[in-house]
Amino acid sequence: xxxxxxxxxxxxxxxxxxxxxxxxxxxxxxxxxxxxxxxxxxxxxxxxxxxxxxxxxxxxxxxxxxxxxxxxxxxxxxxxxxxxxxxxxxxxxxxxxxxxxxxxxxxxxxxxxxxxxxxxxxxxxxxxxxxxxxxxxxxxxxxxxxxxxxxxxxxxxxxxxxxxxxxxxxx
Length: 171
Ligand SMILES: [Zn+2]
Prior knowledge:
Layout: H1 15-27, H2 29-40, H3 54-58, E1 63-66, E2 69-72, E3 75-77, H4 80-90, H5 97-105, E4 108-109, H6 113-122, H7 125-137, E5 152-159, E6 162-169
Parallel strand pairs: 3-4
Antiparallel strand pairs: 1-2, 2-3, 5-6
Helix pairs in contact: 5-6
The structure holds zinc ion.
Residues 91, 94, 124, 126-127 line the site of zinc ion (ZN).
């Protein structure tokens, strides 16, 4: 299923994309300083750094630099200036917030990315239209069958990042 989905992973980040992220990381007031600390070593105490860098300080053991870009473990850290664009990419197939979050968890990172994804999906016009038309369908009445398993319904849904098949007996 994942293969049908527009996706990108750290492995598939092109060199031009890498170059763009590298430049934007350099320009980013927080990421550029985090990168410098990552190279030189972080101070022993949080009190010695700008409070704006606390979040990165907390991540310091997970940070690594690859080709001038900063990674949280294996997730590329996206500078603020590029986040909207990557959010769009994550939600390109109009997938649910959970699926988008799952994709992000293996590829990209920024502070508040999960909340940004939720907001992006909730405020997406296409997804909103789909939700409205779906709720109309839910109102359709049906007759009650005479015996068990005379009429069943099946649907696929997503929960906790996994695809599930639900079967309902109308009886
Ligand atoms: Zn959408």
